[in-house]
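Q: What residues go here?
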């Protein structure tokens, strides 16, 4: 298998994952303030899954090596999106945390 094709599959997986998980982040932000959150979440799920599965189908094109490279990129995108959109990392002071809780 050509390394260039596998690299393209990896980049496609990164793109699909960024779209999927970035879209999930965006949907949660919009859905929480919406009057119809179920419609947002269900519509987003259908759209994101359709795009991701179609992308995997065309990238794989019957080659398991391409599918694995695409899946690795997809999973890597999950961690990248989580890192970029997650809450800031706080330094926990265990003494202060324990003091605020009832026994």
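A:
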């Amino acid at each position: 298998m050509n390394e260039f094709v596998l690299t393209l599959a990896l980049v496609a997986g990164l793109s699909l994952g960024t779209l999927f998980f970035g879209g999930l982040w965006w949907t949660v932000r919009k859905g929480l303030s919406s009057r119809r959150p179920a419609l947002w979440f269900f519509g987003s799920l259908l759209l994101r899954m359709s795009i991701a599965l179609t992308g995997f189908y065309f990238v794989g094109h019957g080659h398991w090596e391409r599918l694995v490279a695409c899946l690795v990129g997809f999973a890597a995108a999950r961690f990248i999106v989580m890192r970029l959109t997650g809450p800031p990392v706080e330094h926990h002071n265990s003494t202060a945390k324990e003091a605020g809780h009832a026994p």
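A: Context that may help when evaluating the design: The first helix runs from residue 3 to 32. The two ends are 61 Å apart (CA to CA).
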